[in-house]
Amino acid sequence: MTVYQSEAGRRSVLSVPVERRLLADEFFLMAHHDVSGQLRVTARIAGFGATAAVLADLVVAGVLEVTPSGHLACPEPGVRLVGLERQIAAWVAAEPGQPVPAWLDVLADVSVPAIGQRLADAGVVRPVRVRRLVTVRTVWEPTDMNVAAWPWARLSTRIGRGDRLDQFDSALARLCVAAGVEGRFLGGEPRARQRLDRLLSPVPAQVDALLWELSAAVGRAVLGGRT
Known about the structure:
By secondary structure, the protein is mainly alpha-helical. It has helices at 23-31, 43-60, 83-94, 100-121, 145-161, 167-179, 183-186, 192-199, 205-224, and strands at 65-66, 72-73, 125-132, 135-142.
């Protein structure tokens, strides 16, 4: 099984039974401002990205697989999970014939708040209710700006030095590019995107398939005005 190796001294706060960094953690932090906790993209786009990140984490952990026909399957439904991962595994096991785009669409509205609450339980962020006129929404305010800024600072430093990115950071960077939050680490330089492309490492084929489906889903949402 291919796993993303943990960095020394950094443990995941999520429940997938593999000690490794998780894309869901870091994409969530990348998609939110590291001081205010405000989303940097629309809720729908953030939801697509967060869902793709969770699915990728579950694929890497061996819980889910992307079939050659582009559907999600759950070959290991008995793996010990809690929270959002457990729900997703159960849903996929019950509906194995659904294609990846359908899951991105269905889960887009639930992934961000579920990841946010899990990170809040771990003390990484805190939920703040913001009222505007007749609407109330939740902002996930970081408890430590340095922790919240770590993903983009790491990517920015490595890209600036010209370091080849490992599988995890390559997947994270591509997630952020697809969701439109790559400005966090590319800094708006004219040739930064070309430099990034040269530094990316290949990711597992099934994760690659999820990333392509994410890009397509975001494109459809933008073209259809559903962002």
